[in-house]
UniProtKB/TrEMBL annotation:
InterPro entries: CheY-like_superfamily, OmpR/PhoB-type_DNA-bd, Sig_transdc_resp-reg_receiver, WalR-like, WH-like_DNA-bd_sf
Sequence intervals crossing the membrane: none
Gene3D superfamilies: 3.40.50.2300, 6.10.250.690, Winged helix-like DNA-binding domain superfamily/Winged helix DNA-binding domain
SUPFAM superfamilies: CheY-like
Species annotation: Streptomyces beijiangensis
One Pfam assignment: Response_reg
4-aspartylphosphate modified-residue sites: D52
Assigned GO CC terms: cytosol; protein-DNA complex
CDD domains, A to Z: REC_OmpR, trans_reg_C
Residue ranges of domain OmpR/PhoB-type in the record: 124-225
Name this protein carries in UniProt: Response regulator transcription factor
GO biological process: regulation of DNA-templated transcription
Occurrences of domain Response regulatory (ranges): 3-116
Keywords: DNA-binding, Phosphoprotein, Transcription, Transcription regulation
Length: 226
């Protein structure tokens, strides 16, 4: 059964969401604050998270940042503010979708259904890639950079694998959406942009001088190795 982790400090709103999701055939787990949400993420392994921005203690932005450090769990953020700057902040932080309160129950369910459909399998990826610097094993999801373990999330692994397969060739954001996110709609260029930024950061945490992914202005991204 699909499980939704509802992170909402208002017990009435959390109850409404839980009832709505159960009626949609999904299981729910609830957390009223950010620290509890992170603990439950480990304990329950949910399929999607609905995350309120205005939480006590760790706010939604801080929770999202920590989630993205360890998981590619689809995250839909809820907020009382509809400012464009907040939506951009959410995308940059790694949110998959963003909904402003008050919202339609049907729209919320439809958006979660869309996020769940984006979970990719990527059985067509070659099992192994090795260019002498980067080694990727698609079976074990193990990545090595200059013979050192490279800590990547599942999404970062898929993104790097797709780029590495096309080494020295520009891959467009639309192509990456189709191969990495299974979303060939052509939308979501910002999602790709910020995912590439996080991938670069992960590599440079291991090797500060590394710069293997080139942004080709107006076209896409190219893995050139190092």
């Amino acid at each position: 059964m699909t499980t939704v982790l509802v992170v909402e400090d208002d017990p009435d709103v959390a109850l409404v969401l839980s009832v709505l999701f159960r009626r949609s055939g999904w299981g729910t787990v609830r957390a009223g604050d950010g620290r509890t949400a992170l603990r439950m993420l480990h304990e329950t392994k949910p399929d999607v998270m609905v995350l309120d921005v205005g939480l006590p203690g760790l706010d939604g932005w801080q929770v999202l940042e920590r989630v993205r450090d360890m998981s590619d769990l689809p995250v839909l953020m809820l907020t009382a503010h509809g400012h464009e700057s907040d939506r951009v902040r959410g995308l940059r932080a790694g949110a998959d979708d963003y909904l402003t309160k008050p919202f339609s129950n049907q729209e919320l369910v439809a958006r979660i259904e869309a996020l769940l459909r984006r979970v990719p399998t990527h059985a067509d990826l070659p099992r192994r890639y090795d260019d002498g610097v980067l080694t990727l094993d698609a079976v074990t999801r193990r990545a090595m950079w200059r013979e050192q373990p490279l800590e990547l999330s599942d999404l970062q692994f898929r993104l790097l694998h797709v780029l590495a397969q096309a080494k020295n060739t520009v891959v467009t954001p639309e192509q990456l959406l189709g191969r990495v996110w299974d979303d060939a709609s052509g939308g979501g260029g910002d999602r790709v942009k910020f995912a590439v930024l996080r991938l670069r950061r992960a590599i440079q945490e291991l090797d500060p001088d590394a710069d293997p992914i080139e942004s080709v202005r107006g076209v896409g991204y190219r893995y050139r190795g190092n």
